[in-house]
């Protein structure tokens, strides 16, 4: 009965192949990244669905203006962190689970990028890195802000890359212009003078509006009012390592208000009187100065002068509620009245840093060593070989800025009594 058994074998082989095909089809969906399931309306929001329902895709066709809903599925205001342990080290369960949507709660948080339409391809690269290394598994929203309306290309490209919902906001003119108390002629002469002295961005009006906006207004835009935490992302940054946990949860669960990856000294020419204004504020508002603050990070003589150390604000994960607090807003308004955003060229980095350094207890500022990061010309590459291997980093250790002379990160460790990461002595100096 050779013919009969041959047919029998063929049936078995056929059934096996069929089962195998069905298995691969049902198990091969590329989780975390979905193709757009709709067209792009003229509206200001694009969106994606997601497996955990952390973002809802059912508002995509609504016309602008749009805003994120206060209630978002997956976002929990109160939960017991112990019920949802995060893998913080390679020994923790789940460290290697980097496929699929991450389980557990989501924080009331969003990415935020200020950008021009012409920044589209540079912000696209940044988004791609953030998604690949983190957000494809978490699907957090992304808010884009611009002093002009975003064009269709910008919205299409960014919405296609972000795994969460996207929102596009236009900044009101009052937040991107000269306040009435600024003497235009005086401001113009300063720009002329800085142009001659070749101070970086010294002759730019728009850069000053940008710095003032990032210092005092981004966190109060309507699109950001529905969130508690933000992660700022600029065009042309890179992320070098996988993120094995949710940094928003690290912020929330440890009561952190501000965080950084790179710190350095500010250009002297851009902030000649910033510290004078700060001292005036401290005198007028002693109630806003936190006991146990980070003055030692900012000053080497007990507050008499500023050592120009600041956290580099092109990367920030922080608390919007803190920036919206009376303390922070009083500080910004006091600086704004003094006019240094226009009579000098105060950057938002020293402004945020001084605020965090003086108005937060030092424990509320966090250093994210695990987040390998580049923004020209500086690199933060996590310290130590094993750490980089565990995190699957692709940065060159020789590029790490952390322990070089021009970095302020050593001071941060010293003032907080923190032990420097293993291997820091062998890193570039
Ligand atoms: N909408 C808008 N965004 C701007 C403007 N100037 C700068 N930005 C954004 O502000 C941030 C800082 O600007 P950038 O050119 O990266 O300055 P740098 O990092 O200090 O060299 C980036 O997110 C830019 O996209 C502007 O005139 N309009
Ligand atoms: C998120 O935070 C904002 C601002 O604090 C709040 O108004 C909103 O209700 C919160 N949403 C959720 C889902 O917790
Ligand atoms: Mg930049």
Automatic annotation (TrEMBL):
**An example Gene Ontology CC term for this record:** Golgi apparatus
The processes (GO biological process) annotated in the record are: cell wall mannoprotein biosynthetic process; protein N-linked glycosylation; protein O-linked glycosylation
Presence of keyword ATP-binding? no
| One GO MF term attached to the UniProt entry | alpha-1,2-mannosyltransferase activity
Q: Which UniProt keywords apply?
A: Glycosyltransferase, Membrane, Transferase, Transmembrane, Transmembrane helix
Q: Where is this region: Disordered?
A: 40-83
Classification via Pfam families: Glyco_transf_15
Instruction: Give the transmembrane region(s).
Output: 12-30
* Keyword Transmembrane found: yes
For this protein, the record's SUPFAM superfamilies field holds: Nucleotide-diphospho-sugar transferases
Q: List the InterPro entries.
A: Glyco_trans_15, Nucleotide-diphossugar_trans
Q: Composition bias, kind Polar residues: at what positions?
A: 55-64
Return the Gly residues bias intervals.
40-50
| Record family assignment | Belongs to the glycosyltransferase 15 family.
Q: What is this protein called?
A: Glycolipid 2-alpha-mannosyltransferase
């Amino acid at each position: 009965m050779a013919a009969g058994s041959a047919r029998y074998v063929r049936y078995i082989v056929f059934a096996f192949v069929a089962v195998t095909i069905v298995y691969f089809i049902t198990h091969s969906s590329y989780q975390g990244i979905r193709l757009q399931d709709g067209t792009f309306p003229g509206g200001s929001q694009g969106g994606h669905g997601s497996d955990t329902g952390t973002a809802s895709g059912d508002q995509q066709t609504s016309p602008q203006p749009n805003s994120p809903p206060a209630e978002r599925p997956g976002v929990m205001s109160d939960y017991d962190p112990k019920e949802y342990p995060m893998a913080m080290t390679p020994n923790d369960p789940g460290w290697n689970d980097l496929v699929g949507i991450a389980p557990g709660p989501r924080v009331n948080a969003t990415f935020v990028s200020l950008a021009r339409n012409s920044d589209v391809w540079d912000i696209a690269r940044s988004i791609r890195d953030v998604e690949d290394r983190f957000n494809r598994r978490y699907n957090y929203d992304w808010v884009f802000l611009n002093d002009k309306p975003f064009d269709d290309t910008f919205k299409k490209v960014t919405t296609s890359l972000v795994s969460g919902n996207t929102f596009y906001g236009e900044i009101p003119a009052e937040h991107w212009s000269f306040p009435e108390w600024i003497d235009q002629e005086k401001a113009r002469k300063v720009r002329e003078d800085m142009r001659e002295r070749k101070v970086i961005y010294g002759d730019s009006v728009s850069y000053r509006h940008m710095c003032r906006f990032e210092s005092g207004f981004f966190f109060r835009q309507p699109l950001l009012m529905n969130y508690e935490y933000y992660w700022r992302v600029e065009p042309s940054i890179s992320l070098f390592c996988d993120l094995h946990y949710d940094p928003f949860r690290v912020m929330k669960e440890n009561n952190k208000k501000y965080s950084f990856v790179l710190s350095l000294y500010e250009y002297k020419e851009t902030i000649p009187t910033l510290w004078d204004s700060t001292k005036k504020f401290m005198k007028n508002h002693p109630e806003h100065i936190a006991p146990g603050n980070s003055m030692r990070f900012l000053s080497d003589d007990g507050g008499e002068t500023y050592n120009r150390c600041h956290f580099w604000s092109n990367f920030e994960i922080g608390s919007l509620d803190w920036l919206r607090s009376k303390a922070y807003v009083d500080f910004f308004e006091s600086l704004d009245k003094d006019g240094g955003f226009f009579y000098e060229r105060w950057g938002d980095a020293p402004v945020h840093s001084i605020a965090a350094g003086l108005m937060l207890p030092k424990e509320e500022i966090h250093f994210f060593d695990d987040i390998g990061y580049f923004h020209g010309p500086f690199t933060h590459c996590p310290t130590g070989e094993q750490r980089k291997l565990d995190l699957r980093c692709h940065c060159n250790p020789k590029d790490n800025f952390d322990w070089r002379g021009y970095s302020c990160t050593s001071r941060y460790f010293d003032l907080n009594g923190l032990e420097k990461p293993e291997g820091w002595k062998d890193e570039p100096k």
